[in-house]
Design a protein that fits this description.
The chain is α/β, with parallel strands linked by helices and about 350 residues long. The chain is about 35% helix and about 15% strand. It contains 13 helices and twelve strands. Keywords: Aminotransferase, Pyridoxal phosphate, Transferase.
Length: about 350
């Protein structure tokens, strides 16, 4: 069985019983390809490493509150966004949850051990990630929560703000919890976030990750924002000292890096449009991504499996879509890398088309 996440290239080759090439380019992960933005001084970090971390996750907690202009009581820190989703399982145990697909597999993975009943709804068009608004309006009243990835993973599409607001309004009538996963919103801009709105509701939780933009997946750091009462209901399930000191210290510094964020957004936007143009010239259907990754489908969909194997043989690891509902292996997600890596991908596709 293939891994359910990207960034596992060795496991992909093992699962498919293929010889791993000497050189790999892992397009299956979608972390910022720019260099790590901080110069780390181990001597300066030693006091943090050798002391117990702050029980509330300072200084990162205050940094998040200041960055978004909200109160600290409206923030819950997590050992990665993944921990936030795991904590949600405790409050949604034995309840019904509506999930919009295709989407990040971690939602259902973290809820399943809590005997959650899933109501799954597919978007009307994968390339544009068009939300099935009429269906959602009918189903939201019968769910305890709805999960929506904004912008979506794996397509990179950001649903229209007015549609998300409409869902929040519908959910308010039945106190249905709206969980908005904004892990990749950094790539679009804070003007699109619902973080500043969330504390005004009793039923909206926005989840963010420091992994993608800030190139720190190994440190595990994320956070959620919502009404203070909702935050308290989740925080009681978190373990003590669940935010390590190094992650907290570096996370606080990362939020100061305005120029780094802006440069990342600009450079990726150019690379994304170059990639889109190339894929469309190859006859591919491409998602309307606004992030540092996109999904595409071959013109000859029936050759998807052969194409995946062909690229793996060249050391080009794409993210398969076998575990994304509605995509079922006929789409591929590609993370945007530096230009030399993108050229290697283009050469691989051209070689495929010339067989």
């Amino acid at each position: 069985m293939l891994p359910n996440h990207g960034a596992n290239p060795q496991q992909v080759y093992e699962a498919m019983n293929l010889k791993e090439p000497d050189t790999l380019i892992d397009f299956s992960e979608n972390v910022n390809h720019l260099p790590f933005p901080l110069n780390l001084d181990i001597e300066k970090l030693l006091p943090v490493i050798t002391a117990y971390p702050h029980p509330d996750g300072e200084p990162f907690l205050s940094a998040v509150a200041a960055y978004h202009g909200i109160e600290k009581e409206e923030v819950l820190l997590g050992n990665g966004a993944a921990e936030i989703f795991a904590l949600l399982g405790n409050v949604l145990a034995n309840k019904r949850v509506l999930v919009v697909h295709p989407t990040f597999s971690e939602y259902e993975a973290t809820l399943a051990p809590h005997h959650v009943e899933f109501e799954r709804v597919l978007v009307e068009d994968i390339a544009t990630y068009q939300l099935p608004m009429k269906t959602l309006q009918k189903k939201i009243p019968y769910a305890s929560a709805i999960y929506l990835c904004t912008p979506n993973n794996p397509t990179g599409v950001l649903p229209p703000r007015e549609e998300i607001q409409q869902m929040i309004d519908w959910a308010q009538r039945t106190a249905t919890l709206v969980v908005l996963d904004e892990a990749f919103l950094d790539w679009i801009g804070e003007e699109h976030t619902f973080i500043t709105d969330a504390p005004n509701y009793d039923h909206v939780l926005v989840v963010r990750s420091m992994t993608k933009m800030y190139k720190m997946p190994g440190l595990r750091l994320g956070y959620a924002v919502g009404n203070a009462s909702l935050i308290r209901s989740l925080a009681r399930f978190a373990s003590h000292w669940h935010i390590n000191g190094v992650a907290s210290a570096l996370g606080a510094e990362m939020l100061k890096l305005h120029n780094y964020r802006e440069k990342s957004i600009r450079e990726v936007a150019v690379s994304r449009e170059t990639l889109r143009t190339f894929l469309e010239r190859q006859g591919c259907v491409v998602t309307n991504s606004q992030t540092n990754y996109m999904s595409f489908q071959l013109a000859e969909v029936e050759k998807s499996e052969a194409f995946y194997h062909f690229m793996l043989a060249r050391g080009l690891v794409l993210r398969h879509s076998k575990n994304f509902r509605g995509m079922d292996g006929s789409w591929f997600r590609i993370g945007i890398k530096a230009r030399p890596q993108m050229e290697a991908f283009e050469q691989g596709m051209i070689a495929w088309s010339q067989q």
